[in-house]
Amino acid sequence: MNFCADRNKNNRIFLLSSYLASSLASSLASSLVFAMGTSTAHGQENTNGIGGDYLNWLSNSALTSGDGRFSIKSSGRLIYDYGLADFNDENSEARLGQKINNFEFRALELGIRGKIFGNINYRLVTKLLNNQVDIKLAYLSYSFGNFDIVVGQTRTYTALDKSTPLTNTSFSVRGAFVNAIKARTRLGVGLSTHGEDWTISGGYFIDSLVKSKSAVDQRDMITTRLTYSPSFKNGLGLHFGTSYFYRSNNGRPFDHKYNDRPFSHQGDYKPLRSAQFNILSEQFLGLEFVATYKSLATQAEFAIVKNKLSNAEILTMQDPSYKGGYFELSYFATGGQRTINAKRGRFNGIKVKNPVGAGGIGEIKIAARYDMLDLRHQTFGTKQVNYIGGIDWYLNVYMKFQLNYAHSIIGNFANVKSDTVDTFNGRFQIFW
Questions:
Q1: Average pLDDT for the chain
Q2: Which pLDDT belongs to residue 58?
Q3: What are residue 89's phi and psi, to 5 degrees?
């Protein structure tokens, strides 16, 4: 009898059961709060669509103390994916061992947020991924005037695509350069300020509370981001932004490389990769642009990453420099709009005027993206180009389906094709 296998299986069952129990407890607590704070007439018209009324009060109901100085509300997200990917080598022969055809429970996130003592905000988000519960966010923030200070496990100030929640991205996978730099949530301190149409933010980060953290999550990181997002009376909205980070190992050299999967979260094969060099530091510089007009939107980013070699590196004497970016075009066939929150420097959530189940069809967006990341240096590394198309269907403001197709071409240092990948991704999300 394999006692180790049985024990691991029991641990996974216990972990999932515990997490689902906490989800149920959170929902029941929110239900009680909702029942105490609001009332709904029997037979009232459903204005939020399928499941929307439940998720609406789950999202907006908060338990608040009598003096208003303390509050708590729940949040959450469930993601379920399907991935199909066919890999071919330089001779157009199938890499059968790398083929992906799989459903995946991508993630379940549960969180709470609110305020304490009237002027201190808090947020805690846990994430169940790969049979493991991690702390994604855990921070306190304090606002005074137009300034905000945040302390704890929080998002770094890096790139528009990274700052956009997956609930509001046009595709199920972020830009290749965003995934490769691994600018995940970190433990540190941040300061931000804003005006009517601009933001300035920055932070210093030292570690991560995530159990599955890699070495890059433990390195010192200084980040900053600036945005300017003017809007005009004719309905045109613009966004300009730049972000920068410096990451090091507190002055000590370390081995480092970049890589990413083709347009998929599943699988372990990563034909897009740089060589591993011994370096002292990384520097990242990114540029952002968005233009929105009614149902049409364009979005683009370009980034450069530079590494400072240590004296111990023997493969190359020249400091590596990599570049990547994307250009995206999207259109709401049902009249919806993408808009920028100028005071936060990121996209607003999508408003769904006619939800499914309330007499409408929701909002349907079609999008296309060209995505490129070049990780070549001298005779090392590869370059990947993605041609991506997708359809997003917002059933209401809490549910979303995504279908994406991507054709990826990977070339070596001499720009000779080494891999091609055709990927189909499907995703269903519930969020509140």
A1: 88
A2: 63
A3: -85, -170
